[in-house]
Amino acid sequence: MVDITLLLDVNAREPLYCQLYQHIKNDIISGKLAAKTRLPSIRALSSHLHISRNTVELAYHQLIAEGYVQSRPRSGLFVIQLEHEKLPAPSPVRSKSFELSKHDRPVVQYDFRYGDVDVSHFPVSTWRKLSNQCLQPEEVELFSYGDSQGEYELRFEITKYLYHSRGVNCSPDQIIIGAGTQYLLGMLSQLVGANGRSIGMEEPGYNGVRAIFQHYGFNVHPIPLDQDGLNICKLYESKSKSVYITPSHQFPYGMVMPFAKRMQLLKWAKEQNGIIIEDDYDSEFRYVGKPIPSLQSLDPHQRTVYLGTFSKCLLPSLRIAYMVLPPTLLELYHKQDYQLYDQTVSRFHQKTLELFMRRGHWEAHIRKMRTVYHKKHSTLIATIHEVMGQHTTVIGQDAGLHILLRVHNGMNESELIHAAAKVGVKVYAVSPFWICPQQADTSMVQIGFGGLSIEDIVKGVHALQRAWISKYLL
Asked: Which residues pair with 222 in a beta bridge?
């Protein structure tokens, strides 16, 4: 239950119950009162605001009548889930201009956001069952602080999975679990010590990671891409001692670094006494060709840090990622007392995930999601080719949960996004992934497909065709 505090004007022409009703309504529309929030009882609110119960009751009845709250027998009044995109922002102005602004505001029907996952296939009942087991009296130790590196049993399961799926060679003691890749990269940045040092990074590359390195004092040196990934010669020229790379599915372009170039990169690390940070963020979803072993598995000199996450395969909100440290950095981790840091991931979530993996649910879930995403990926590509054909070029279509789409209609990135929004479709900019945005392709957008149904993917692409192509063919 939430407190509601406001100043009611007893001298206003508007009745007190209308003022109270309007205040609560505006808070619901703006999101200040979230869905499922329980409102104070009539008695409690009348006492809190020093107004009559009749005033509160009238306001509540109006909210119920307009569908903002619902009454549950013997439970109270609760805020109803609203589609906020379709609601006007609270405003005292009632005019034609207000109606026009509401009418002109595009409603997002198809959001091609990268990072969204298919929550409809998340095994809720299995996860709930395992989670409930973690709350049993015999699991009372989970109620206290855990291992700073993460629960040992979970690290053991991750070790087994990484070896069989990606060839990663490590022990549970080398694994650090943390609340997301960015958190772990922050820890790694402190571990290696920035102090103005240069770190190489793919250009373009993930801006969320770039920001982490910059915040910790690294000079981020952009390394251009060849058709098969990072330009190794330019990496040598940068004089960087560390490099961040996404070799199994380059972000955002999507190319896979071939075996020969991986060996060149490992040779660089040996010669420069450098560190390779390998982010294997979505390697489970590869649709063309055979899987290529991780860089870490090919590294005889143990110069590679391996990063992975459960966000793409399970749920982003679980915030569970992991980092595999090579022996030299693991020694620094213990020497610099990083084991004194408290673990950032709930022990209950860690234990649930450990049971999920140990009992075979994880492998089964990955197989199912690989099929689900492959169907969505195939539908997206086929529909683009069918309705937009030679007017577009698809980039990075062999793996992952997103593609880049170059549109040949003369529109720039901003114009493409704006035109898509007018037909209820949300696509995303690619230019932020460049350190030098002016070098970015001006006619390209990012399209993620993980969170949309197959039906919505088809409808969304057809809407994009109307926005980008149709009127240019007339």
From this structure: 201
Query: Is it the case that residue 213 has pLDDT exceeding 80?
Result: yes
Q: What is the pTM of this model?
A: 0.76
Q: Which residues pair with 38 in a beta bridge?
A: 78
Residue pair 315/180 in contact (Cβ under 8 Å)? The answer is no
Is the model's pLDDT at 414 over the cut of 60?
yes
Task: Name the β-bridge partners of 304.
Answer: 276
Pick from 4-8, 289-293, 319-323: least confident: 289-293
More confident residue, 87 or 352: 352
| Residue partners of 330: CB distance under 8 A and separation at least 6 | 173, 174
Q: Are 229 and 263 in contact (CB under 8 A)?
A: no
C-alpha separations of 287 from 19, 243, 268 in Å:
58, 27, 30
**pLDDT value of residue 239:** 92
How far apart CA 30 and CA 93 sit, in angstroms, is: 16
Whether 98 shows a pLDDT value over 60: the answer reads no
Residue type, 41: S
Task: Return d(Cα 20, Cα 5) in angstroms, integer.
Answer: 10
Task: Provide the sign of the torsion angle of the four alpha carbons 35, 38, 41, 45, taken in this order.
Answer: negative
Average of per-residue pLDDT across 232-241: 94
